[in-house]
Amino acid sequence: MSTVLHINASATREGSVSRAITSNVIQGLQADRIIDRDLAAEPLPHVDDAWVKARLIAPNERTDAENRVLKQSDDLISEIQDADTVVFGLPVYNFGAPASMKAWMDLVARPGVTFRYTKSGPIGLLEGKKAIVVYASGGVPMGSEMDFATPHMRLFLKFIGITDVTFIDAKTYERAAAA
């Protein structure tokens, strides 16, 4: 049984290029189960002092309040742990990923859960997964010196253990679909 986690970060609901293309990509994957995470419809909180402190406490030593602080983070991590493939809709706003995507990254990056530190550097704990990232920008070409979104996404995914990453440039995808 294959599970796909579908993460949309576009603030645009109607007419979103990244939403349209990720939907097409997911149809092609023919997954048995799809987990949808819409970061515009269900905004995530930014990390705060309570979260930063709670994440470093061993699970069996946390208070109920600390567990509540980490609940949403735990849910997001469970979604990505359950997935075989993660499909990201990554629009580019002001040269980078939307704040909603950064909030998701912050909540998913948890020491001892999605990565661990070693003497030789961090090791991602979510190995064996695939990621497909649909890059959509009105003016920043993917791979250009102005593109900070794809290197950030690639680095983050590697940090948590996902190294099988495919980037789809929405402009190239749309040209191919029109041909």
The average pLDDT is 96
Largest sheet: 5 strands, parallel
How many β-strand stretches? 7
Q: Give the count of helical stretches.
A: 6
Helical/strand content category: alpha/beta
Count of separate structural domains: 1
What is the highest CATH level, the class?
A: Alpha Beta
- The rounded Rg comes to 17 Å
- How would you name the CATH homologous superfamily? Flavodoxin domain
Structural key phrases:
single chain, 179 residues, alpha/beta, Rossmann fold, five-stranded parallel beta sheet, two-stranded antiparallel ribbon, 6 helices, 7 strands, globular
Topology at a glance:
Blueprint: E1 3-8, H1 17-29, E2 33-38, H2 49-54, H3 64-82, E3 85-91, H4 99-108, E4 115-118, E5 121-124, E6 130-136, H5 149-159, E7 164-169, H6 170-178
Parallel strand pairs: 1-2, 1-3, 3-6, 6-7
Antiparallel strand pairs: 4-5
